[in-house]
Amino acid sequence: MGFYTDRILPHLTDKVCGVAANDTLRRRACAGLHGAVVEVGFGSGNNVGFYPAEVERVSGVEPADVAWKIGAKRIAASTVPIERAGLDGQSLPFGDGTFDTALSTFTLCTIPDVAAALAEIRRVLKPGGTLHFVEHGLAPDASVRTWQHRLNPIQKRIAGGCHLDRDIPALISGAGFETVELDRFYLAGAPKAFGALSLGVAR
Ligand SMILES: C[S@@+](CC[C@H](N)C(=O)[O-])C[C@H]1O[C@@H](n2cnc3c(N)ncnc32)[C@H](O)[C@@H]1O
Fold first, then answer.
1. Which has the closest alpha carbon to 181: 193, 169, 190, 189?
2. Model-wide pTM > 0.85
3. pLDDT per position as a tens digit, 41-62
């Protein structure tokens, strides 16, 4: 993929996504996770400290070797067993109905074929299993959306394929999930084009 994407970007992502301002979002997204969890786009493990006690094990799916290495200390210190179980959310190496719950934070913006990834997450969840998410995406306001469409080509280049203008709730429901909880809001302190968030649970 290239030196920038493979070696530099995982460090930037670790810092940018790992800011303390995101802690509340991660805590909220992780609430209710339990049993066997698949975390798609595990990154450098920024969610590790937020898994509830009811989580038994986490199967992390992450293509970037460097991100996994950055997260090594967090993973080693975790009370929850974590393994790198896959490399690509678009093709999960698990049988149908393997997991109780799934987690995605700031990742559905980046996976190239996001519909395929959501279909895979749905496939590997047990019946009634839930996807917990916090994602940025298409803003509710037309003026913000205009800027998101304009900035999208630049964002994709500098942020490893990250899209600003994906309609995350629509993609999740389009994959056959039923939305159980959904909170849509702008992240305080961030430009609206980058901080239009969807946080929720889908079954
Ligand atoms: C913006 S980072 C978010 C990382 C982490 N979830 C967090 O909240 O800090 C997006 C992550 O998605 C990963 N990613 C990109 N393509 C992917 C794919 N096809 N399957 C799974 N993860 C992918 C990237 O390597 C990166 O770690």
1. 169
2. yes
3. 999 999 999 999 999 999 999 9
* Shortest-distance atom of ligand 1 to CA 22: 8
pLDDT digit string (tens) for 87-125?
999 999 999 999 999 999 999 999 999 999 999 999 999
- Answer whether 25 contacts ligand 1 (Cβ < 6 A): no
Ligand 1 close to Cβ of residue 66 (< 6 A): no
Q: Whose CA is nearest to atom 10 of ligand 1?
A: 107
Domains of the chain are 3-202 (3.40.50.150)
Ligand 1 atom with minimal separation from the 112 CA: 19
Residue 132 makes CB contacts below 8 A (sequence gap 6+) with 29, 30, 31, 32, 33, 101, 102, 103, 104, 200, 201
Which residues pair with residue 182 across a beta bridge? 200
